[in-house]
Amino acid sequence: MTTAAARSAAAGSLAEMSDSSRPNRRLPNPWIAVPVLIAAAVGWFVGSNVARLSCRPGGCLGEEILWGAVGALVGFAGVLTVSVLVVRSLAEWAALSGDETGEGEGPIEPPGS
Fold it and tell me: What's the rounded Cα separation, in Å, for the pair 86 and 32?
């Protein structure tokens, strides 16, 4: 089988796939994405300003960019971690308490009560 024939066969099989058989892609949760992006911007601002204050005027553009990027990554990672954990714990709490659906196991009783 030639390469062109293999490509056309693969394209034909992909075209025959229905929408239901394609993998579902989730959009980013805005309750996570927006705070994370804001934290990254603030981290960039803080990191670059700390580098700017520690250098002589006009002499440290590379260090400003470097420390701005480090600040952005730290802010991004920290807020992302906390946001994901909060959203997951709220989802678990809602599932256990039967949030507005009347389903769920009800409140969790402490042991020995």
Answer: 9
**How much is the pTM?**
0.60
Show the 3-state SS of the chain: CCHHHHHHHHHHHHHHCCHHHCCCCCCCCHHHHHHHHHHHHHHHHHHHHHHHHCCCCCCCHHHHHHHHHHHHHHHHHHHHHHHHHHHHHHHHHHHHHCCCCCCCCCCCCCCCC
Note the pLDDT of residue 56: 80
Give the sign of the dihedral formed by CA 74, CA 80, CA 85, CA 86: positive
